[in-house]
Each structure stands twice: as C-alpha cells, then as structure tokens.
Amino acid sequence: METEKNTARIGKDIAHAAAVIRMGGVVGIPTETVYGLGANAFNEKAVLEIFRIKNRPFFDPLIVHIHSAAVLERYVTGVDPLIRKLTRAFWPGPLTVLLPRQYCIPDLVTSGNPLVAIRVPDHPLTLALLKELDLPVAAPSANPFGYISPTTPEHVALQLGDKIPYILDGGACAVGLESTIVQAVDGEVTVLRLGGLSLEKIAAVTGKMPVLAISTHSDPKAPGQLDKHYSPRTPLRVAEDISVAFAAEAGKRIGLLSFRETYPALSFAASAVLSARGDMDEAATGLFAAMRRLDALDLDLILAEKFPAEGLGPAINDRLARAGAK
Ligand code: TXA
Ligand code: MG
Prior knowledge:
This protein has helices at 14-22, 44-54, 81-90, 107-110, 124-133, 153-160, 199-206, 242-248, 280-295, 313-324, and strands at 9-11, 27-29, 36-40, 63-65, 95-100, 115-119, 137-138, 166-168, 180-185, 188-193, 211-212, 236-239, 254-258, 270-273, 301-305. By secondary structure, it is of the alpha/beta class. The chain has an 11-stranded mixed beta sheet, with helices on both faces. Strands 12-15-13-14 form a 4-stranded parallel beta sheet, with helices on both faces. Helix 7 links the parallel strand 10 (188-193) and strand 11 (211-212). Threonylcarbamoyladenylate (TXA) binds at residues 31, 33-34, 36, 60-63, 96, 98, 110, 113, 115-117, 121, 139-141, 178-179, 181, 222-224.
C-alpha cells in the first residue's frame, strides 16, 4: 500500500505560524536574505528540533530574530555604540550583530558562546509574526546542513517539507544572500561573515572600512565559515577567465554561472546569467536559485565567474568559493 508523504503546508497565515511556534514547533519563515527555520529561542526542545531537522552539528550556533531594536536589551547585556550606529542605520535589514547575551538565551542557541547573534529581518510577514509572538525566534537558513540556502518557499518544501508542518509564504527573497555578521572589537567593526549588507554601506555609517575576520578553513569555533558550505552536488569551479577554464575541461558537460556575459562562442550545456544589465544586487538575489537550477541538470561541472570586488561582489565570491570547496 502506498502511503502519502507528509508535506508542509505553504501559506500566508501568520496566526497559524505563530500558534505552531508557541506550541514548540518549527516553521519555515521568509526573510529578505534567505528562508529560515524558526522556533521559539526560549524553548530548548524546539531549538533542538531545528538542529535535528537540519542535521546540523551543535557547535554551529543560531541567529536570534527580533521584531525591533527596541526589544534588543531584553536579550543582551549591553550594546557597543558602534554596533548601535549600525543597527540604527540597517535594521530591519541584512545585518546580524554579536552582543553579550542575557541568561534568558539558552546555551544551545549560541553553542555556549557568551555572545548571541541577533538581527531584525526586513520582511513584512516575518516582522508581523515576530510582533504577534513577541518572542525571540532562533532561525538558521532552512536548508539541510551544507547545502545551498533557500530563497523561495518551494526550495524549503523540496528539501525539508516532510520535516516541518508549515512554511510561511513570503515569495522570493529580495536580497538572496545571508546577513552580514559583525562584532565590535577594540573600537572597530569586525565582519565575521560577508553577506547581504556590503562593506561600503557599513563604512558609509562608521567612516571606516570594517576589519575582515573571515576564516577560510574549517574551524569549529566559527562554524558558519566552514570551508565546504552552500554546496551544490555538482562540482563547481570559480574561474577568473571562463574561456581558459572551459578549454581546460573539454569534453565535459559544463554549466555556466556568470555575472553578465553569455560567452556565445563556448558550447555550454546550460547557462545562468545572473544580471544581463550588470547589476550586482540583482545577481545576488538570483545566485542561489541559479545554483539550484544548474545543480538539477546532472552536469559534470559548473563553471562560475569570479565577481568584481565591490558592493556584494565579495559576498558572492565567498559563497562561490565555499560552494566549490572540496
Ligand atoms: O540571513 C541570515 O542570517 C539567515 C536568515 C534566516 O536570517 N540566517 C542564517 O543562519 O544564515 P545560519 O544558521 O545559516 O548561519 C548563522 C551563522 C552560524 O553558522 C554562525 O557562523 C553565526 O551565524 N553565529 C550565530 N550565532 C553565533 C554566535 N552566538 N557566535 C558566533 N557566531 C554565531
Ligand atoms: Mg546557513
């Protein structure tokens, strides 16, 4: 006898999503960056369930989502003035700040770190949900550990739909890259993860380019920065020169992932051009969906073009490099 596979309902019912979270359940939630797997951060059983669903190691801590900067001090013991400047300028938005946590935030959420990562997401449905709950919601990206982050409710349903009851449908994510994670260290803004808020925008507020502290190798102390991350199943290589790289891989079925160029002279088996008009923000928005599309085609290789190092370029290059890591 065939049994029907359970699959998450997708809808816009904020009251339902709130009820599930209040009862200790896990819900797929939209944000402007990527979709998250949200649960009540105060409920350790619910948070455990997030780790189980994602198959995520416990040393990799979760970001806590709140509805406004006005409630930040419920969860942290102090806010560095530099960080305050940034939250004033960029919340709601793709900025996550690390601050000393209050005891109400469980160890499980921060993996024992005395600092908690917090942000106010910029999505009307999730902001309404957070206001209705008036609880902090712990939410990692809603992908199986190590795979590409989801930017549509369908991406979430495809991979985790049989593990959660509900996905709040907020459409496609506007930014498309995870939040930029920062911390104030010795009077300087330090960036721990490149993301949807560019370094230039941070510098425009602080008057100084932030310091980069992004690890490029596997380090359990900075787990979001694990080398192999955001990965498609298909091997992916980042190339400075696509034509040279294509020639070196002759005979293979190759997919192109490029910024604006189409490379008509090269016979790619498939291609994804992220922004024909050369708009970096548009390229970021579509990056993960394009990686998924190419990954579904059973190609031998995805060749990705390296992006210029301005705006969201470094964050895109970071994701491409991790997607290509062995
Ligand atoms: O845009 C985003 O940030 C998305 C949406 C859903 O908000 N969330 C997201 O979560 O990307 P996740 O779990 O995929 O990545 C969170 C990363 C962790 O892997 C870790 O590197 C860092 O944030 N992190 C979280 N809490 C931390 C803490 N207490 N101390 C140090 N790093 C932390
Ligand atoms: Mg993630």
